[in-house]
Design a protein that fits this description.
Elements: H1 23-38, H2 45-56, H3 63-73, H4 76-81, H5 84-87, H6 95-117, H7 125-136, E1 143-149, E2 155-163, H8 173-182, E3 187-193, H9 203-217, E4 222-230, E5 233-236
Parallel strand pairs: 3-4
Antiparallel strand pairs: 1-2, 1-3, 4-5
Helix pairs in contact: 2-3, 6-7, 8-9
Length: 243
């Protein structure tokens, strides 16, 4: 096209030097459209993780990172349960991405805890199991927690009494009993995790449970159960006839 002056009007010509949009821009839009059309539940884990990472990393293809995180930690729960330090060992995960993933995990954990706190624990056992699994299934070190309950078996507090190594967390029955008195608790549920993934109680777990039961009994405090949490499930010592 030429102007009235006879010179070529370059402003009306296509921009041959413009860079094409990165391929992942179209991919993001297509993934969002699929999520809106079919629902988030229809997406595989790596695409769900991709959608979340879009907000943390706005200008980069995040599919490889999503897949790498799932490979490194084994599952979506494993990714969210990993510590910030563990997440940052994955190339492409900086402080901001690690914080965002831990934020998602904390929101998930609090949502699960709400279901436990609103009603008597004994009558919402499935919610309790879901909560302790969310909290502990992917912990890399053993953690011993106690759920302190009131006379109506409602949750007063969930406290970490001790953290340990990959296969042991020290437990002091007198400390558990003392804390129960401080909180005016009427009953307890003991919880700890096995980082190996296998929730099968050990003989040491059984012995420790009996010691806590004995210490609590002198104060007329009941121990309802001891739950052992692993990636492969949750074991109840009471259901197994071990207490």
């Amino acid at each position: 096209m030429r102007s009235l002056s006879g010179l070529e009007d370059v402003s009306a010509a296509p921009d041959l030097w413009a860079k094409p949009a990165p391929h992942f821009v179209g991919h993001r839009e297509r993934l969002r459209e699929r999520a809106l059309a079919g629902g988030l539940a229809a997406l595989p884990d790596y695409e769900l993780l991709e959608l979340f990472l879009f907000r943390s990393i706005p200008k980069k293809d995040v599919k490889p990172l999503a897949k790498q995180l799932l490979t490194r930690f084994g599952s979506l729960g494993g990714v969210l349960g990993a510590t910030s330090e563990e997440l940052r060992t994955v190339k492409g995960v900086g402080e901001a991405v690690a914080l965002d993933l831990k934020l998602l995990h904390e929101a998930t954990l609090r949502t699960a805890k709400e279901q436990v706190a609103r009603r008597p624990v004994i009558s919402s056992w499935s919610a309790l199991v879901a909560y302790v699994k969310t909290a502990l299934a992917h912990e890399s070190r053993e953690q011993f927690r106690v759920l302190f309950l009131d006379k109506k078996n409602q949750l007063i507090a969930d406290e970490v009494m001790n953290r340990g190594t990959v296969d042991h967390a020290p437990v002091y029955p007198r400390e558990v009993a003392r804390r129960a008195l401080e909180l005016s608790a009427s009953a307890l549920i003991l919880v700890h995790n096995h980082p190996s993934g296998d929730p099968q109680p050990s003989s040491a777990d059984v012995d420790m449970t009996r010691q806590v039961v004995d210490a609590a009994r002198t104060l007329r405090i009941a121990v309802h159960d001891h739950l052992v949490v692993g990636r492969h499930g949750v074991a109840s010592l009471k259901a197994l006839g071990l207490m």
